[in-house]
Amino acid sequence: MPGKGYWIYTFWLTSIIIVGIGGFFVGGAETPPKFLASTEEALSNMFGNSSEDFVEVLDVKDYPQEAKQENIRTIDAVEEGEVVLVDQPITRAKECNLDSDIDPKVGAIIINEVAWMGGLESQDLNYSDEWIELRNTSSGSVDISGWQIKDANGDIEIVFPDGTTIPPGGFFVLERSDDNSVPGIIADLIYSGTIANEDESLKFLNSNCELVDKVNADPSWPSGDSTNRRTMERSDDLGWHTFSEAVEEGVLGTPKAPNSKEVSEEDPEVKEENASEGDFSRCVDTNASPTKEILINEVAWAGRADNTSEEWIELYNPGGDKSLDGWQLLDGDQSIAIIFTEEDKMDDYYLLRRILASENPDGNWEIGGVSADKTYTGVIQNSDEKLQLFNKNCVLVDEVENVGTNWRNIGGSASPEYRTAERTDSNEWHTYSGAGSSGIMGTPRKQNSAPQEKTEQTNFSSGGGSGGQSSEPGEEACSQDDLNEPTRTVLINEVAWGGNASSTSDEWIELSTDIDRGLRLSGWQLLDKDKEIEIFLSGRIEDYLLLKRILVSESQDGVYMVGTIPADITFTGTINNSEETLRLFDASCNLVDEVVDVGVNWENIGGSASPDYRSAERVDVNSWGTYEGEDNVMGTPREKNSVVVESGEEDSGNEEESPPNDDGGESGDGGGGEEEPVPEEPEATIELDITSVIYDAEGADEGRERIVIQNNSTSTADISGFSVQYLKTGAEYTSISKKNFEMGHQIDGGGEFVVGANCTGVVPCEGVNMSWSQALGNDSGTVYLVSNQENIESADDPDIVDFLSY
């Protein structure tokens, strides 16, 4: 006979069923899930469940009231309409009705800044690098667990997880897809979905579905600049304005910092040091020849050693006193816009000093003890920059252009000396040549230093070998600390460290590569131990690249030879005979190859000085030998090394020897080793193809876009120096997106390499070899596999290994 407990349980469960059935007719369609939830709770209370490894499965189709959290890091899987959460608190958010156009009940937490336009291409970002910032305007912490942000079309559905709080006066930054959208800022939350540029809205709701803030694009956003990538910021009156200051830390915005001031022509209290009070319009470059009545005379584009933000510009007036009222000094992207007023007058020199937007422009600002005449905000970019000076009628007075990849192309230097670029005459520039004063390596409000002969290496377009190369200086020299394992895509193949019998100054270096179709060397560097030699490379290497030392006193307009072979690049500086190191870096400062452990003399590894002056030749990636031939050069410039060990031989460090003949000499009678040559094994051909592109993966499949690369050869392919690049259909190549392969990335013969696109931070990448935050678009585009890590410039770029359009 059943016990007492049985009858109590039966009675209790029967009561619940009766109440549930009755409630169905009273409460409608929402009652069954509530009823089941009550039953679950009752059973849990009756039988208990203390397991900490509890896994809950929510059927999204049957439980519309539960939160759908594809965009929160706590997701473990999304399959067949089910959200599976493991070992994480489940945030229960209501399905809020967003149709009603009601005004928000603005409280302590507001939407403070929106980067709906994405990030700067100069920071390797693009339009997809969107972010949102919240701000707590109150004096107390606010718990926003279960709160939501949703957009107009449901592409963005953010639910804040349990325990999410914003401290008093604090900021909370949400980044799209990954933590790379805002340089230098760690995201508080990663979300998925796109903020549309038009006909869009963002609505911020609390845990009770009350609208606490919103902003609409109807049809356009009230502020922000998609062309220059300036963010939309909240004003003090809760309106919106466009970020008004110069780029800081690679962002035209203020993530996790107070917003910029709203600039209004009607507001007389707004005063910027780079703009006059009242109305003005910025001059436009008409490509006219400058009058040069006043010169941009000196530019400290790199700042100084103890403060790289302390940039300054000096103007020089070769005539009498001059009023600058209405004149303008603008940079390339007009992040610097200095508008002169009637108070600005100059006699001979006029000093402009950069300050940060947070600093007081009315302070006493100096440049090495010399008072500045005016301050400005904005950054002088280190590359692709120009400065233009216009008079009050917008006639071009002077300009600095053709800076190219670095200001060092025309003058000045960055680390470690931070020298200014000085005007030589109305057409030429040079680098400050003095010893410096008060920490300033320049001549503020003084006559410029005398130009010295250039010490940077120069190209002479020899036309031989891999063609005329340019050794135009690039970014500041790579650090030689904390180095990676060398990639060996290009080798330092031969070094004539002793010069030759005619001149010990005739040193030369040979680089080589076995990569099919060669490599582009733009931004690469070859440095010695003490950086007396700093060779900044550009152009291409097809097989060999020959670099020859010249003296500073030698003409830079000639063609220089190594024996009878024209050099591709010249350089200055001495290859030290002892305690020397040579290192080759790629454009990302990854170590490509090195020569170390020379010790007290290069002869420890290879080569010789007097009397033979033989070159040191590479035997293989790990060892060196000495040139074994007999000719005037005593080396093998742009030829196969004499000491290369053939397949199957030991790494002896010496040239292969022929079998001895009967009298102990070399084999063959007069024919040497040529009678029975050792056949060379043909180089393995690496064939890489993009075999498939999976795109338009949205909804539950978001984060599963893929690019599959196949190695069709039998040899392992090292792709650590390669990149994958994406171009949206119809877009210009200047807007291409790129992801570099990393050190150690390779594809086994016959194997595949899978790049996971648009999957970081949202749904974990599964079965991929490398993740990329780039979304591949919903309709069409082209994916390129490139043999280096430079942005391609056209579909005919010779470094394209393969491409696939979809």
UniProtKB/TrEMBL annotation:
Residues 271-282, 419-428 have a biased composition (Basic and acidic residues). The keyword Transmembrane helix applies. Residues 473-484, 647-685 have a biased composition (Acidic residues). Coiled coil: none annotated. InterPro entries: Lamin_tail_dom, Lamin_tail_dom_sf. Pfam families: LTD (PF00932). Residues 445-460 have a biased composition (Polar residues). Residues 252-284, 406-485, 626-685 are annotated as: Disordered. The chain crosses the membrane at residues 6-26. Residues 104-306, 676-806 form the LTD domain. Keywords: Membrane, Transmembrane, Transmembrane helix. This is LTD domain-containing protein.
